[in-house]
Amino acid sequence: MERLIKYTETYEYIIVDGNVGTVGISGEASDKLGEIYLVELPEIGKSFAKGQEAAVIESVKSAADVYCPVGGNVIEINSALETKPELVSNSPLEDGWLFKIEIADTSELAELMDREEFKKHLNEES
């Protein structure tokens, strides 16, 4: 079964498995950031609204806020990033995910882009 992956205009992705979403930044976002040296993750149990700042990624070029693609509660964080923040760049969709949320309202997923729509969005930006 193919994974459902949705993207935001601000380069976050969410991989959906039932009512759990795995959130991270797209490879395109990590490419723009360059070498990542610090990832500030949210606390487990914290609740976020759609579009609310949930994490911060710091790179040699800049710091970037990571926004929650949909509302929900953080149920897990990728603690491997505390010692290996470069995983965000090296493996954004596999090992470099940031946090998992229990999705409060799955209908919010309909407002996000699929991969094809996301590619068009990137082309319009460049």
Please give a quick description of this structure:
With 126 residues, the protein is of the alpha+beta class.
Describe the protein's architecture and organization.
The chain is of the alpha+beta class and 126 residues long. The chain has a single domain, classed as OB fold (Dihydrolipoamide Acetyltransferase, E2P). 17% of the residues lie in helices and 37% in strands. It has 3 helices and 9 strands; from the N terminus they run E-E-E-H-E-E-E-E-E-H-E-H. It has helices at 27-33, 87-90, 115-125; strands at 4-7, 12-17, 20-25, 36-40, 47-48, 53-59, 63-67, 72-77, 99-103. A 6-stranded antiparallel beta sheet has the order 1-2-3-9-8-5. Strand 1 and strand 2 (12-17) form a beta hairpin. It is globular. 34% of the residues are buried. The model has no long low-confidence stretch (mean pLDDT 95).
Question: Any chance you could write out the topology, listing elements then pairs?
Answer:
Layout: E1 4-7, E2 12-17, E3 20-25, H1 27-33, E4 36-40, E5 47-48, E6 53-59, E7 63-67, E8 72-77, H2 87-90, E9 99-103, H3 115-125
Antiparallel strand pairs: 1-2, 2-3, 3-9, 4-6, 5-8, 6-7, 8-9
Summarize the biggest pleated sheet. 6 strands, antiparallel
Distance between the termini: 33 Å
CATH domain class name: Mainly Beta
Which structural category do the helix and sheet elements fall into?
alpha+beta
Can you tell me the CATH architecture?
Beta Barrel
Poorly predicted sequence stretches spanning 5 or more consecutive residues: none
Count the DSSP helices: 3
Number of strands: 9
Q: Name the average pLDDT.
A: 95
The helical percent reads: 10-25%
Q: Report the C-alpha radius of gyration, rounded.
A: 13 Å
